[in-house]
Amino acid sequence: MAGFALRIKTKSGHQVVNSLTKDSTIKELKEMLSRLSNIPPNRLQVLSGFPPKILDLSQDDEGIVNSGISSGDTLILEEKPVSVTNTIVEDVTMSGNEAEDPFEPPAHGILIKHIVPSDNSCLFTSVQFVLNGKIDNTGSVNPYLRQLVAETITNDKELYNEAILGKPVDTYCAWIQDDKSWGGAIELSILSNHYGVEIAVVDTVNAIINKFGEDQHYPHRVFLLFDGIHYDPLFLEPFDGSKLQTIFPVSDEQLLKQAQQIAQEAKSSRQFTDVDKFTLKCMVCNVFLKGQTGAQQHAQSTGHTSFGEV
């Protein structure tokens, strides 16, 4: 029986599955979607179409084709808000402030990872994507961002001294402008301050969110995903089919909670790279390397930038 291919979008990204057939039941579909999203079947809400609409998947024994789903469709998965219907509350007395409503309105979209190349410039590529909503194809933006970082450091050597940089200022500035060098916390801090935007890095290794520029109280926030060695930008795909969004008000606590959930789910499913323990193989000269530091040193000394995890 030919496979029934579906594109599945969740908070953690999107993927294609073809484990079902046109004769599969709605129950089998919901069980598969529940495993992918870690959402219980009774809490699973599935949207499809443009603009996305909630599908009626209540008839477990019917075939999936009867639900209007066709092979090749895109399904957006979300968790239903907690229902408070049929709840009887008697003799409730309010004292002082009114009780806070624990239920928030459903999210207006899903945070999705946009995969960028693993070419040693993923941090800079990710930053330019969240600031502009697209990837620069001219090849000029990443060198510009590297130069901007170097000039910022050069102009404030008291703040960015050798103790902070881990190497002499001039050496660091030359190093970061090399397209084989990987950016990190120093570069994120500088770019956050330069563009006046908080950069929230969703760390899937430690299941935390590091907010660069938080102390500056910037009004807007962008999100990056970090798996230990690689950065990807996150964008919001709205349920109403409107244009994707990459810049958000810092007051959007619901979106921040969604990002935190991505970090926790990725950590629990080990969607990260332990930079202290993983072994890499240079795909150019077949040399085995230990951890992020070994890969960085090898890339700097040889110019090789293609690595595979062993």
Automatic annotation (TrEMBL):
Catalytic reaction annotation: Thiol-dependent hydrolysis of ester, thioester, amide, peptide and isopeptide bonds formed by the C-terminal Gly of ubiquitin (a 76-residue protein attached to proteins as an intracellular targeting signal)
Localization of this protein: Cytoplasm
Single GO cellular component term: cytosol
Enzyme class: hydrolase
InterPro entries: OTU1_Ubl, OTU_dom, Papain-like_cys_pep_sf, Ubiquitin-like_dom, Ubiquitin-like_domsf, Znf-C2H2_OTU1-like_C
EC number: 3.4.19.12
GO BP field: endoplasmic reticulum unfolded protein response; ERAD pathway; protein deubiquitination
Record-annotated OTU domain positions: 111-224
UniProt KW keywords: Cytoplasm, Hydrolase, Metal-binding, Protease, Thiol protease, Ubl conjugation pathway, Zinc, Zinc-finger
Pfam families (alphabetical): OTU, OTU1_UBXL, zf-C2H2_OTU1_C
All residue ranges annotated as the Ubiquitin-like domain in the record: 4-77
GO molecular function terms noted in the UniProt entry: cysteine-type deubiquitinase activity; zinc ion binding
Function statement: Hydrolase that can remove conjugated ubiquitin from proteins and may therefore play an important regulatory role at the level of protein turnover by preventing degradation.
Name listed for the protein in its UniProt record: Ubiquitin thioesterase OTU
